[in-house]
Amino acid sequence: MKMTEPKLIVHGGAWNIPDKYDKAHLNGVQAAIEAIYPKLQSGMTALDAVEGAVNMLEEDPTFDSGRGAFLNEIGEIELDAMIMDGQNLDFGAVAAVQNLLNPVSLARKVMENTEHTMLVGKGAMIFAKKMGFKELSPEALLTDRELKFFHKIKNDPSFRSELPFEFNPMDTVGAVAMDEKGNIAAATSTGGTARKLQGRVGDSPIVGGGAYADNQTGAVSATGWGESIMKVVLSKTVCDLFKTNNSLKAAQTGITILKNRVNGMGGVIGINNRGDYAFAYNTPKMAFAFVNEQAAIEAHIKYQF
Ligand code: GLY
């Protein structure tokens, strides 16, 4: 029996997206909603919806996740992802995995097929093979855009990953869904920051940092500079704020805490346990899309609050 109208919101990163990339970002987040929302309406679970939406964004070379991810200091791609089920607080996460198109699906396998919650690096790749994931060639995830960017910043002593939201892509992707039974889930996937040290792990696979989901409060996916997002446990912070604030105010307060407490930059999307959307960011732009009250898809990159 349908108890609630399903909700779905996705993001494709918060940073100073150059105007020339606006269209690709808007198309990417809109396509994820168009493909997944009808399935949610037909009874898909929130967990399947966030995995499906994030898979689409991982496969879209526009974004820093899966195909199109940043290169690290030695020119390799290392990916982080997590998924969380608000019914029981189960989550799965992977970090520093390589040559996989859909790390969020591996995170789900960790959640459902192991007694653990997080696998990293070599061990995660051994598990991926056991689970039948296809290990791609490094070139399969590499885009010309990122190869050029890597060579541009490789030997630039002024480059710092945390400074350049002016210039640096932070296209982490994420999704939050509420299904017709009222269950909530969140997922986040990223290639991390440009020229990161090998083995660097950001907020995206850290529970409460890059995502959080709890049917009792709501669910959130975060994007932005991971080192600061982790310090304020941004996704969990916004979920806690859902208890005493309306959804938009909770998201805005979370971003204010990120800025005021640790000088961080980024954005969040979410859904509270009443099914209200939340979104906020302090970067110049954030690409995101959702299905509004009139059942129409809204895609935004520079929202007028
Ligand atoms: N927010 C993505 C990262 O910092 O890795």
Mean pLDDT: 93
Radius of gyration: 17 Å
**Share of β-strand residues:** 15-25%
Intertermini distance: 36 Å
Could you name the CATH class? Alpha Beta
Present as ligands are: glycine
CATH architecture: 4-Layer Sandwich
**Which ranges are low-confidence, i.e. pLDDT below 50, for 5 or more consecutive residues?**
none
- Proportion of helical residues: 25-40%
What would you note in describing this structure?
By secondary structure, the protein is an alpha+beta fold. It has one domain (7-300): (Glycosyl)asparaginase (Glutamine Phosphoribosylpyrophosphate, subunit 1, domain 1), CATH 3.60.20.30. Helix content is 32%, strand content 24%. The protein has helices at 22-41, 46-59, 103-113, 121-130, 138-141, 144-153, 226-231, 234-241, 247-262, and strands at residues 7-15, 79-85, 90-97, 118-120, 173-178, 184-190, 211-214, 218-224, 266-272, 277-281, 285-291, 297-300. The protein has an eight-stranded mixed sheet with strand order 4-3-2-6-5-1-11-12. Strands 7-8-9-10 form a four-stranded antiparallel sheet. Helix 3 (103-113) links the parallel strand 3 and strand 4 (118-120). Helix 1 (22-41) runs antiparallel to helix 2 and helix 8 crosses helix 9 (247-262). The longest helix has 20 residues, at 22-41. The radius of gyration is 17 Å and the shape is globular. The model has no long low-confidence stretch (mean pLDDT 93). Bound molecules: glycine.
